[in-house]
Amino acid sequence: MNETRPAARGPLRLGVNIDHVATVRNARGCGYPDPVRAAHLAESAGADGITAHLREDRRHITDHDIDRLMCEISLPLNLEMAATEEMLAIALRHRPHAVCIVPEKREERTTEGGLDVASDENRLAQFIAPLADAGCRISLFVGAEHRQLESAARIGAAVVELHAGGYCDAHAERRILDRDRELKAICDMAAFGESLGLEMHAGHGLTFDTVKPVAAIPQMMELNIGHFLIGEAIFSGLESVIRRMRELMDDARSSAADGQADLAMASGLTAASG
Ligand code: PXP
After folding, report:
1. Res 268 pLDDT > 60
2. pLDDT tens digit string along 121-174?
3. Ligand 1 close to Cβ of residue 168 (< 6 A)
4. SS3 for 156?
5. 155 to each of 57, 149, 160, 200, 203, how far by Cα in Å?
6. To test the ligand 1 pocket, which listed residue (80, 87, 210) has its Cβ within 8 A of the most ligand atoms?
7. What is the CB neighbour count within 10 angstroms for residue 174?
8. How far is the CA of 1 from the centre of ligand 1 (A)?
9. What Cα–Cα distance (Å) separates residue 273 from each residue in 171, 250, 269?
């Protein structure tokens, strides 16, 4: 092992986001497929947590889903939500293991950018205080920028989840330089965040092709993955897809390398293959 290589901090947790099981259910307005059933399958396939985003427009997960997830699953629930009074009341009623605050725009298809903590420090500090007092682990979903992490640490967040969407989009669109720049920013900010005392997570857009370099980042403690897993489950089944994702994460973790080039090689993400 290279002496300057930072050691991985421990096992990397996989949070499975079940929102899009509810998207399919809601497309027909009936009771199936059931996201709670997906949560049970995720657990048996090796997930460490369940993530669900209760959006203000309830386009996928509903209030009833959250009631059921809180009662029926044994894995910790990470409730993603916007910083609104309505969501605060819901989270305080349920007291999930973790609350991840995300920006939300009604017209967006999915969470497009990170939260602007730096421009909204006072309001967010007041918003998260009662949640932290209620015992929820507070996570803020942000872009890989110093000022956002500094603000997150200042207002007392326990966790920062770095937005991996830019990296994944660049990979899908074969914009190699952008992809590598985005990945480097995630690596750098994972180290910076940890130095501020934050626990580092990442999520959004991760697939079999893009997960390994992020999983190999030693400071990374949790990845939250949804859309790809649910989509791929159509072809291979949910348990098998989650198991495969787990294997890729564990492989990357055990061969974690210290530099950008090594991270790229760990996944086959080279300029030639990109
Ligand atoms: N993390 C956060 C904060 C998100 O908003 C989302 C999307 O809901 C995810 C992770 C999962 O992203 P994806 O569904 O693209 O894997």
Report:
1. no
2. 999 999 999 999 999 999 999 999 999 999 999 999 999 999 999 999 999 999
3. no
4. coil
5. 28, 10, 12, 16, 22
6. 80
7. 10
8. 33
9. 10, 22, 6
Pocket lining: 143 vs ligand 1, CB cutoff 6 Å: no
Point out the residues that are catalytic: 53, 80, 204
Structure token digits, residue 10 = 């421990």
Q: Which residue among 160, 224, 228, 245 has the greatest number of ligand 1 atoms within 8 angstroms of its CB, and so is best to mutate?
A: 224
Q: Which residues contact 257 (CB under 8 A, 6 or more apart)?
A: 2, 5, 216, 263, 265, 266
Burial 40-75 (b: 16+ CB within 10 A, else e): ebbbebbbbbbbbbbbeeeebbbeebbeebeeebeb
Question: Could you tell me if 91 and 136 are in contact, meaning their C-beta atoms sit under 8 angstroms apart?
Answer: yes
pLDDT given for residue 271 in this prediction: 47
**In whole angstroms, what is the distance from residue 270 CA to residue 186 CA?**
17
Atom of ligand 1 nearest to the CA of 225: 16
At residue 259, the pLDDT reads 46
Q: Indicate if ligand 1 lies below 6 Å from the C-beta of 100.
A: yes
